[in-house]
Amino acid sequence: MIISAPKISVILPNYNYDQFLNQRIASILNQTYSNFELLILDDCSTDNSKAVIESFKDKRITVYYNDTNTGSPFPQWDKGIQLSKGDYIWIAEADDYCSDTMLEKLLKKLEESKSDVCFAESKVVNEHGVEKGLWCNLNIKGNNKSIFNTDFDMNGNEFIEKNLIFENAIPNASAVLFKKKSYIEAGGVDQNIPNCADWLLWIKILSNGRVAFVSEPLNAFRRHGESVINSIKKKEGNEDMFYEYYSLTMRLALKKWLINYKGKNVVHKINDRYILKDLSRKINWSKSNQSILENIKLSFQAFHISGFNPKYLLKPFL
Q1: Of 183-187, 274-278, 300-304, which gets the smallest average pLDDT?
Q2: Signal peptide span per the entry (predicted)?
């Protein structure tokens, strides 16, 4: 029996994913842990999403339709969380799906470890659901990769210093359960960052919290032609341009936030090092497309945003 106050709020942002919605919604409603609300936020889809959504009849579902498209999933995240009633949040992205036991196991681990964020290993699947391997095995590249072989929980700053500052080691929100209170205290998701605001959000939350990991692959992370990452790569047509767009945008925003960060100075230094690397990529790929004057203008704009001293940073490239 569902009690009046849900413990978990499931936020399902959708835009033109009608081909995946049946499986996504069913995988949520079939959870063994049932004390949740499901908030579906459709971002003005132009496909058959509305018909798919409204084919499900369940008292736990509330649907919100946008009149105009926001152009990013992150305003939908924040809108859903502001509307939510639960103590815990699960962002269930529309093109993914999961094990029936995912919520039950993540909630158990999160509460036992007294963590702010808990996430599970993900199976990487294509548009047809064919499994390609486990995310952490395929994609985590840092020296601390071995921790993902088993369950763990740890201090958030330690996880930032050993993993998150190097790469987004929590790559798929669909695999994550987190405390609503921690989200609010961290200032919420930065809606001005188009494609990696989740990465910054985890760092902000974990700078004052704990993180837990379940090594069982409870989530299915779908990589397909229209996924966010693949869409950016397709649009830019260049791997360096993709990394500049994805990583540099987040790291410049992170640099501003790090001004008040109380963790180790090594975090600042590593972030600065990656900014330099990404700016170098930016300058190199822009040389073939724009004048020298425009290259310098772009570089100085990026340096100004980051808070760096332009004279100091331009020296390696002059």
Answers
A1: 300-304
A2: none
